[in-house]
Design goal:
With 207 residues, the protein is an alpha/beta fold. It has eight helices and seven strands, in the order E-H-E-H-E-H-E-H-E-H-E-H-E-H-H. It is globular.
Length: 207
């Protein structure tokens, strides 16, 4: 059971949006669960209004996240952990010790790029006890017409973590689907482009 930790070092990077929509895409491949380890509980709130039925299960993180991960092993094919917006949070530290992959959404802004440096260090620390931990930066809310968006991939080469080939563009459908208790997969033609991006990212994640 691959364990995917969605990690960020500041609020607003798009962790929960990525977690929920990634889960919706992976649900087409197998059984999926989300562990909401963020104190804000956004994944749990989404689940309360979602129209996903039983295709995705969402669990509140306990104090012993590794124990919860072990309990869910065998019950699901994919486990996504929506982490707090800090790599220094105890929940994030514990999750990285057990995860197979750290997925790191990064917006094309100087603040996000600076925050990513601390994530690089956290990944290195986690690999001391979890040497098999993989990582992947995901450029999120990309606006192709802005200068910063055009140079963000080059800027990320200064960090030793790999960058996903797939970037997620800034699209209103991500916000609108959340407001409606849906994912982009449920939005028909309005969500088709976003769903296609996610499918490309899933191919990278599961390769």
């Amino acid at each position: 059971m691959p364990v995917i930790a969605v990690v960020g070092n500041k609020g607003g990077a798009g962790k929960t949006t990525l977690s929920v929509n990634l889960a919706a895409g992976l649900a087409r491949l197998g059984r999926v669960a989300i562990i909401d380890a963020d104190p804000q509980g956004s994944s749990l709130q989404w689940n309360e209004v979602a129209e996903m039925g039983d295709s995705i299960s969402v669990f509140a993180a306990t104090a012993a996240i590794p124990t919860l991960v072990r309990e869910l092993t065998g019950l699901f094919d994919y486990l996504i952990v929506d982490c707090p917006p800090s790599v220094r949070a105890p929940q994030t530290i514990e999750v990285l010790k057990t995860a197979n992959l750290a997925l790191i959404p990064v917006q094309p802004s100087p603040v996000d790029l600076w925050a990513t440096v601390h994530i690089e260090q956290a990944i290195g620390d986690a690999r001391i006890v979890n040497p098999e931990l993989q990582s992947l930066l995901v450029i999120n809310q990309l606006e192709t017409r802005t200068t910063l968006s055009r140079v963000v991939r080059e800027a990320l080469t200064e960090i030793s973590l790999p960058v996903a080939k797939t970037a997620l563009r800034r699209r209103a459908v991500y916000r609108n689907s959340a407001l409606e208790g849906k994912t982009v997969y449920d939005m028909g033609a309005r969500g088709a482009a976003a769903a296609e991006e996610l499918e490309q990212l899933i191919q990278e994640v599961t390769a």
